[in-house]
Amino acid sequence: SNKEPLLIVLSSPSPIFLRSYQNPRRVSFRAASMGTLVGHVIPGFAFLVFGLWHLYNHIKLHCQRPKSYAPPTWFPAPKVRHLELYIILFGGSTYLVTELFVGPSSHHHPLDPTDWSIPTNHLHNFQHSTMTLAFIVHAAFALHFDRVRPRAGQMMSLLLGSMVFGVELLMFNIHSNGHVGLEWQYHWLLQAVISVSLATTLLGIGYPRSFAVGFARSVSVVFQGVWFKVLGVFVYSPRFIPKGCSLQNHEGFLVVPCDGHASLHRAKSLANLQFAWSLVVVAIFSVWFYLHLAKKYPEVPEYECLGKVDGHVEDELPESPKKKVEEKDVKSGGFLPMGKWLQPMDLEM
């Protein structure tokens, strides 16, 4: 009949309309994968928290030390220096194991037991795990760089950060090919935000002291978190599905088919409006946040660093007190420099 739901495949050069889902059925939500409400909201919360943490530290660092400002890829916490990296390592490892061994429906096994190949219905699990693995690799190397202090550690951290956003962009591009219609539109807009994160991270290599680069990168990560949440709520929550569209289950995957061309066009237009409104709100908040912190953290006196060699910029992250004590002991041979305290005395006979 003419009332059968229509799906538009936008991955092809010309739009192709397919009639499908002759027996659609409503689905109940389970936090099992990225294709659910919770599966998008939780990563969105993580991006939002880390983005705000970076935005706060970038603004504070630039306000207090504008002359020596060099935006790093991570920031030490007040009491636990590597807390940010530990959270990424632990949270990423937990999510990776959950995605590979809990998410798959075939007895918690990511591979086909018969020939050890990747089943088609588990490809999305490996895509999500690959993105998570990239974050784990970056955090692990950042932790190592902070301990050994290589000369080009900051540049290598930025390159690894670019790798993270590059892998994320690639996986979402492949992941979006499995989506159609309204889902594709939301994921395509998400790729636009990830592209900004990738571009600003690469620009950080060429412009290591640019506040605009660090600020824009942090804002883009915040916006990723916001858009993840918007995507999860307005695509995978039945009460927020646009008029003329419905959330359905097709072969174990959640899809949002629309009744016709007009309904699909309206739904995609609403998604574009949501993206624009979210961008404006994030921009207003970011500028207000900057003005607020600029008043709270005035510039502090600085001394020019004489430790620059061949124009290279060393890492701006402060060293841990424990490492400073260890280096001091090594230089002094483990003994107190007694010569500085004992002065020669003339003994009278």
TrEMBL record:
Keyword Acetylation: no
Pfam families given in the database record: DUF716 (PF04819)
Membrane topology, from the record: Multi-pass membrane protein
Keywords annotated in UniProt: Membrane, Transmembrane, Transmembrane helix
InterPro entries: DUF716 (IPR006904)
Main location: membrane
Location of the protein in the cell: Membrane
Entry's transmembrane regions: 37-56, 85-106, 126-145, 157-176, 188-207, 219-237, 275-293
GO annotation, cellular component aspect: membrane
Keyword Membrane carried by entry: yes
Similarity field: Belongs to the TMEM45 family.
Protein name: Transmembrane protein 45B
Organism, as annotated: Anthurium amnicola
